[in-house]
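Lay summary. Proteins are chains of building blocks that fold into shapes, and those shapes determine what they do. In this project we predict the shape from the chain. Here is one chain we studied, written as its sequence of building blocks.
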Amino acid sequence: MTSSLPFQLIRKQFLSTSDIKTIDWTDVLNQVENNHDPCKEQDHLLKLTVLHSALQKYPIKLSYVQFFLKSLIQQLEDRGVEVSAKVYTTYCGLLEYSNKEVEEFHYRHFMIDEYIVTIKESSKIISHGTTGLCCWQGAIALAEWCLLNKDLVKGKHILELGAGVGLTGIAVTKSCIPASYTFSDYHTAVLQVLEENVEINSGSKKEGGYFIGNTPIEVIKLNWEEIGETYTNFLHQPNLILAADVIYDDTLFLPLILTLKYFLLSACEVQAVIACTVRDPNTIQRFINQLDENGFSFSEFPVLKPKVFVYSTNTPIKIFIIKQKK
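And here is the predicted shape, written in a compact code that computers can read:
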């Protein structure tokens, strides 16, 4: 059965665990209600979402699935549409697990064109003493920007700072054909999950390391406060630096800026692209001031309505391209 655009959209929202409160059910419900066999349509929607094949090996958060089905049933009942027996049975089956201890990790699946990026992340915002085990809004926005500006990314040797669970880099390597991609972070638990996500999306570890497509991948531990003294013997010297949601702690501004300076001065035409969620405009401004004081110029790219990913833009996001002043 061919899936309609409303069904494709809700599948995309569900698999990436978009906020259910932001889902507009109207077109989906209209399609179900106007079909000569509403129950069959619901079963098809179930197959695209809750019973999607990707969830068998990499399940999304149980509480999310329960809330999704509860919302669907409520929407159907409010319209007076008969709820499919399979929808009810699936929902009741999931309720049996309500008292089960919450899993430490779950998965999210981001649909991009004809493929899926699968990301393992923590079920808690803070885990193992870090927030780096979750996929944040800035990482999604940065991946979106790269996919819409492939000409600026294709063929580059990319280093990502504070890569977290790896969504940006995995999406970029699958879509933009960089020459190489180096994921970096400092926290041991983050690096472990990051490497798992690289392996999930690359399929296997080949001789010489990981590859996503034909792009060679490195996962390294990098301490900004010891840049130049720690691991800087890269397989490929980076000529594009990426980072997302790393501008939040004033005490890290100088180490981050010195790290940027280290790489941007290493060769000509190296630039950095940083995406940041604006939770406090004053924090962003203080970072910009320090950039200027340390000899950097920057330009801001507008963040448009998402076209590739599905994510909330209620909290503003800024994307900066940073270069060394001439």
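What the prediction tells us: The two ends are 58 Å apart (CA to CA).
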